[in-house]
Amino acid sequence: MPSRERSQPIRQLLAGVKGFRARYYERRPDSMKQLVAEGQHPEILMIGCSDSRVDPALLTQSEPGELFMVRNVANLVPPYQPDGSYHGTSAAIEYAVRVLGVSEIIVMGHSQCGGIQGLIRLRSGEAVQDDFVSPWVSIAGSALDPYIDQATSHVKDSEGSDHWPNVVERAVVRTSVDNLMTFPFVRERVEQRTLNLHGWWFDLGSGELWGLDTTTKMFALME
Amino acid sequence: MPSRERSQPIRQLLAGVKGFRARYYERRPDSMKQLVAEGQHPEILMIGCSDSRVDPALLTQSEPGELFMVRNVANLVPPYQPDGSYHGTSAAIEYAVRVLGVSEIIVMGHSQCGGIQGLIRLRSGEAVQDDFVSPWVSIAGSALDPYIDQATSHVKDSEGSDHWPNVVERAVVRTSVDNLMTFPFVRERVEQRTLNLHGWWFDLGSGELWGLDTTTKMFALME
Amino acid sequence: MPSRERSQPIRQLLAGVKGFRARYYERRPDSMKQLVAEGQHPEILMIGCSDSRVDPALLTQSEPGELFMVRNVANLVPPYQPDGSYHGTSAAIEYAVRVLGVSEIIVMGHSQCGGIQGLIRLRSGEAVQDDFVSPWVSIAGSALDPYIDQATSHVKDSEGSDHWPNVVERAVVRTSVDNLMTFPFVRERVEQRTLNLHGWWFDLGSGELWGLDTTTKMFALME
Amino acid sequence: MPSRERSQPIRQLLAGVKGFRARYYERRPDSMKQLVAEGQHPEILMIGCSDSRVDPALLTQSEPGELFMVRNVANLVPPYQPDGSYHGTSAAIEYAVRVLGVSEIIVMGHSQCGGIQGLIRLRSGEAVQDDFVSPWVSIAGSALDPYIDQATSHVKDSEGSDHWPNVVERAVVRTSVDNLMTFPFVRERVEQRTLNLHGWWFDLGSGELWGLDTTTKMFALME
Q: In chain C, which residue's Cα lies nearest the Cα of B27?
């Protein structure tokens, strides 16, 4: 596309790439040169949400090479289902664990998640017309079971409160971490203590990060 | 998990979150406050690779709120397949286009892509034992058809050359852009000129960005 | 100088400028455009040390336009001496206060300050051969008076301890703040409560920032 | 000062320091640890203006440890004058050259410099009432001699044009570089080719950087 036809957002992204190149290829070329010569060796697989406000690399002030990343709607991990279909998230988990040998997997949820709001509407019986979002977020449908009566009433009664969505967002992180354990190659490494699983939940309003205690299954504020 | 048991990479990520909070919640709180109060309004959906070296937010020097993001192995878009199964990438595309109303979709490929190397080995007949990576990258299998004899010989004959992988990486970006057009809600907006599709390929070795000319189907260096 | 003759450090600085231009003139041009059109309106005058490790803009994560800055050896403020000679630091203070109308002046000292080490050697009677450093740091000579016997013995006896230098570094910040009050146009505004003076001391080893309580004249850790 | 009394700009600076500490002491502690253990070894002395819009560390995307820095009004270097008075800029030059052994000195001027505007008013005969700024900028008074008739008419006639100030700003950079050569310890090293002098001028409006050709004494756009 000729330059004059580029939209403003695209032109600004290209300026960003120019700045990246100045910084990582000319100003301080060592780390990128090494990443090119030796390949990537990230220690962490991060499974985050597609939401533009919670970019995990920005949120953790990471540099190129540090985080192998999956981002999908609502940071979901489907259960292990090796049926030959297209499973993007599962493929990334397999690549990170079996090829790259990461030692940490972090599921990063967050408050005010649009995907979770879709899930709540779905479970409250609201009519939904979409092709992919509803089937996708239904991965976490069972996460709502313990709360479902409450859910229905909450969603109908207390519009504007964000307490209930936060409960669901955290439950979904828990489900994703549980689903990770259904992958044999994950479970094996967790049991051998060469792989750690983490569930995080970022509160967009306050900037606080909460972590799942994998023993008690409760979230606590991380220092 | 008590603090003393945290691994070094995890402690460093938490320090990064602390720095993010200092910067975006205390030092310059305006943009994040606005993103929380008004919700996200990104203009761009970026579909990038999970590779840790090509984080699209870093590569384009973006800020929170700018890029709605999918990241999967080899930046693949599956064809439109509304069968009720779990389609993470398709769900994100649907959310970005139908709910958020983005005006640009960028498929961002890159050189030295491990997923593409897997695809090449797969198509060259190499025995592969995995559950998800091979089925996933086979989305782009047809991208290799025009080159397939060449592929076999290349992969067997010219170890060390990276020319052939680059050809495939670019062909895969082309396939992903083509597959985007199989989504009715994408095609409709492209035809109405309210949505633009872009195929980019980042050369990790040189830092150069190449762009797909959607008319000629050829890649050219972007300024 | 033709490009091929530029040294490596210079080439890297130029790459940095290229990155700055990409970021502040193309990627996010709004703030720089405004600073050009409307001129500078910093609220803060920072008087810092020339030491390369304690750049105040980096240390406070500032953006262009925020800090009017003096940097000299040992962050010294000379006493008010309007004798027509060249007084660079006094000129900057005058410009910041009378022309720009800043509301805060911060004197930023730090640990492991080479200028202060020179002052200590000077006061301990060591023979010194320089043209400018010794006369310059002698501005703060009286800061050592309360400690001077102690100084001599300390410097001779306790090689390796960094306690004594820190005492002096803080005393020098105190002296600089006191000297600020000898400028009539500073004193006037402080008494009218339109200008605040601050003395800070940054501990390079720990990253902690200490602040001078202008009432008790003691330094305390800042949150 | 108790926390509740801190002004907004001060609270934001403190948040910046918190972010710096998170980044340089916890997230990526290696470089700062080394700078503390081994001391500073900058290769460059930068002599820049106090103007808040042209912070040299930001402008060159530098990291702690890279630039030994002087900042004063109008980036002036006084002539060598070892008379025992307080010469802050000369002391920093001496420390950088004789103690630290820098290999490059850069004088960094810029457009829209308030100090230079003061100098122009002064030389055009305008009555000026200040204690320090006029004497200080008069260091560069002789820089205007070749232009002085022109100056008077320009300043009186062509309000709004910024051409003439730019001519003066560049002449002042030239004077500062010339004055550097009056310092015996500078001249000696330049003649031995162990020290390089540079004159730069940054155009705030366009973001372009111009460099002084020390042979022709003319400024040219740097790539």
A: C61
Using the predicted structure, report yes or no on whether residue D150 has a pLDDT greater than 80. no
Distance CA A9, CA D48 (A): 34
B22, B27, B61 member nearest C27 (Cβ): B61
Q: Contacts from D179-183 at CB under 8 Å and sequence distance 24+?
A: D179/D77, D179/D78, D179/D79, D179/D80, D179/D139, D180/D77, D180/D93, D180/D105, D180/D107, D182/D79, D182/D80, D183/D80, D183/D90, D183/D93, D183/D94, D183/D97
In chain C, domain spans? 1-39, 40-221
For C23-42, how does the pLDDT look when each residue is reduced to its tens digit (9 = 90+)?
999 999 999 999 999 999 99
CB contact under 8 A, D67 and C44: no
Which of C11, C19, C26 lies closest to A23 in CB terms? C19
Residue C70 in contact with partner chain D when CB distance is under 8 A: yes
d(CA D26, CA D32): 10
Confidence grade of residue B150 (pLDDT, cut at 50, 70, 90): low
pLDDT of residue C143: 83
Q: For position C151, what pLDDT does the model report?
A: 52
User: Using a CB cutoff of 8 Å and minimum separation of 24, what contacts does B161-169 make?
Assistant: B162/B111, B162/B112, B164/B120, B165/B111, B165/B112, B165/B113, B165/B116, B165/B117, B165/B120, B166/B111, B166/B201, B166/B203, B168/B116, B168/B119, B168/B120, B168/B143, B168/B144, B169/B109, B169/B110, B169/B111, B169/B113, B169/B116, B169/B201
d(CA D191, CA D179): 15
Query: C157: which DSSP letter?
Result: H
* CB-based contact, D18 to chain B, within 8 Å: yes
Q: Which CATH architecture has domain A40-221?
A: 3-Layer(aba) Sandwich (3.40)
ipTM for the whole complex: 0.93
The predicted-structure confidence for D198-220, as pLDDT tens digits, reads as follows: 999 999 999 999 999 988 999 99
CA distances from D9 to A73, B28, B31, C45 (A): 38, 11, 17, 11
Give the best residue of D34, D38, D68, D95 to mutate against chain C (max C CB count within 10 A). D95
Alpha helices in chain B (DSSP H): 8-21, 30-38, 56-59, 88-94, 114-123, 133-137, 148-157, 163-180, 184-191
Tokens, residue D172 = 């002042």
Q: Which residue of A has its CA nearest to B115?
A: A95
Contacts of A27 in chain D (CB under 8 A): 61
The answer to whether D30 is a known ligand-binding residue is no
Q: Residues of B comprising the binding site?
A: 49, 51, 110, 113
| Cβ neighbours of B93 (radius 10 Å) | 30
Cβ contact A28–C12 (<8 Å) = yes
Which residue type occupies B92? A
Cα C2 to Cα C19, D44, D110, D212: the distances in Å are 21, 19, 22, 11
Tell me, yes or no, if A57 comes closer than 8 A to chain B by beta carbon.
yes
The confidence band for C152, taking pLDDT boundaries of 50, 70 and 90, is low
Residue of C nearest to A23 (CA): C19
Mark yes or no for CB contact A73/B51 under 8 Å: no
Measured distance CA(A82)–CA(C124) in Å, rounded? 78
Alpha-carbon gap, residue B82 to D90, rounded angstroms: 74
* Close Cβ partners of A38 (under 8 Å, ≥ 6 residues apart): none
Mutate to test the interface with A, among D25, D26, D58, D61 (most CBs of A within 10 A): D61
Backbone angles phi, psi at D139, to 5 degrees: -50, -40
